[in-house]
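We modelled the chain as a single entity of 250 amino acids. Its sequence is:
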Amino acid sequence: MPQENLNHIYNAGKYFESEQKLKPISTETKPSTVKRKISVVKAFMPEQEDPFKQKVEAVLKGVEPASAPAMTGGEEEKLVPRGAEVIVGTGQNVIGEFLAAGKSILVKGGAGDRTGDHMFGGEIWVEGNAGRFTGGYMTGGEIQVKGNVGHYTGDSMKGGAIYVEGEAECWTGDHMFGGEIHVKGNAGIWTGNLMVGGTLRIDGDVASFCKTAFAPDNKGTIIWKGQTIWKNGQKVEPGWTNLNVEGKIK
């Protein structure tokens, strides 16, 4: 498209923005106003002037998704299929929000907070660490994290699966309704707080389980160090006794 046409479109966008009398973005701007202004800028800003998109496109040209390291020991083609969207992870938040079935994202690096937030299908692989609320409110799909995860992993999740190769911080499985969380490393305090369903598995040590995880209305399953300690509202032996001996319920 000729440059004069691009300038015309861009100027039209600026005129539309001024006609709508949108306030400048500030700490006092309401969320709805912020979203409105961003949408106007995205609609009329010449695409080739976006340096971030140019950087991502340059990376994608040199990346072969199928050659990425396997995260769970399976076939690389299965774990990182060709056609996956590749993101250079520098701590961005909300990667894969509302991800749908059939979609896949490979994060080459670290991810910020709320990775896979409200996702209901698809797959996300994070080669580094992920922040807080990973998989929060998810209802389907799968998240695999090669490194560690922050607080509230799987918060209020209702389905899907989260696999963590490293460690999890506090409140893992908080308000968990369904799905599966599997942490191969250690977990922090308040693990399983207010859990009512799903499967929570911690292979490593746990700083403490929250006592609300063992309420009768928790119909889920908790597995610790390879032993089932809670299932369908009831304690399971010998895992339960081992848990009490180590004083892990607080």
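As a brief sanity check on the tokenised model: The beta strands are 85-90, 104-110, 120-126, 140-145, 161-164, 180-183, 199-202, 221-224, 227-231, 234-235. The chain is about 20% helix and 20% strand.
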